[in-house]
């Protein structure tokens, strides 16, 4: 079973994303901030990380950049969740800072299609 780490500070969005993935038979770890996400990524080595890039709480030197560097060091693909207003421009699903991007709000099918690019579905 593939493991996906969801890093999202919005509890409802995190829970909805987790539920969609679990119903598609993925094992899901969740974190409410980048610091916790880094801990889980280093400890559990997920197969994929899905991370919001505009989280409010950034503490202890933790940031999306640090989480992304941890993922790249461990060869874990990263899908970013974005409102489309972030500093980097998304012109294709692949760029130098992340492996894929999904604009919020998104539908479950969109999420699963993006995940399927990196992980096979078990359904």
Task: List the SSEs and their pairings.
Layout lengths: L2 E5 L3 H13 L3 E5 L2 H11 L3 E5 L11 H10 L4 E5 L17 E4 L4 H11 L5
Parallel strand pairs: 1-2, 1-3, 3-4, 4-5
Helix pairs in contact: 2-3
3D structure, described in words:
The chain has 123 residues and is α/β, with parallel strands linked by helices. It is 37% helix and 20% strand. Strands 2-1-3-4-5 form a five-stranded parallel beta sheet, sandwiched between helices. Helix 2 packs parallel to helix 3 (64-73).
Describe the structure using short key phrases.
Rossmann fold; 37% helix; five-stranded parallel β-sheet; 123 residues; alpha/beta
- Biggest sheet, open or closed, and with what strands and sense? 5 strands, parallel
Q: What is the CA–CA distance across the termini?
A: 11 Å
Spatial shape: globular
Total domain units: 1
Instruction: Tell me the CATH architecture.
Output: 3-Layer(aba) Sandwich
Mean pLDDT reading: 84
H/E element order: EHEHEHEEH
Q: How large, in whole angstroms, is the Cα Rg?
A: 13 Å
Q: Indicate the low-confidence ranges by residue numbers.
A: 87-96
Question: The CATH topology is what?
Answer: Rossmann fold
Number of strands: 5
The CATH homologous superfamily name equals: Response regulator
Structural class: alpha/beta
- Total count of helical runs of at least 4 residues: 4
